[in-house]
Amino acid sequence: MNTLNNLQDDVRTAVIIAGRVFVPAEDVETFVAEARATSYPLAAANPGNVLMSFCVEDAATGTVTVLEQWASQDALDRHVATPEITALLTKWGPRIRNEVRRFDTDEKDLRP
Predict the structure, then answer these.
(1) What is the tens place of the pLDDT at every residue in 5-41?
(2) Cβ(67)–Cβ(17) under 8 Å?
């Protein structure tokens, strides 16, 4: 059987969080530093986290690209429910425009 026929055995459900948040330009570096300092260690400790990234896309406009991958909705829910993430969202939520979306996908491991 060839590799393509075996793909069904390697399909895993994933939750992708992707998009942009818009922060006041004067606060963008602080926001990204706080988001990384809070989210990265918590995500690393969560076995359901696959990827976590906050990146300043355009400092002048306060544009931040967000990309996360989670093995399941339960893993994402555990992350969001931590007191640290709740505090981060409470602090920054009113000050940002959030254009981040959640996507369900089937992840296929294409390695031979």
Answers:
(1) 444 445 577 899 999 999 999 999 999 999 999 999 9
(2) yes
Q: Give the C-alpha distances (Å, rounded to integers) separating 40 from 68, 84, 85.
A: 10, 11, 11
pLDDT in tens, 52-106: 999 999 999 999 999 999 999 999 999 999 999 999 999 999 999 999 999 988 7
Sign, CA dihedral 32-38-41-42, equals negative
Q: Which amino acid is at 98?
A: N
Predicted local confidence at residue 105, as pLDDT? 84
Q: Cβ(68)–Cβ(51) under 8 Å?
A: yes
Chain center to CA of 21 = 12
Secondary structure class of 102 (helix, strand, coil)? strand
| pTM confidence score | 0.81
Q: What are phi and psi of 62, to 5 degrees?
A: 70, 30
Name the residue with tokens 């996507």. Answer: 103
Reported as type and span, the H/E element at residue 78 is: helix 73-80
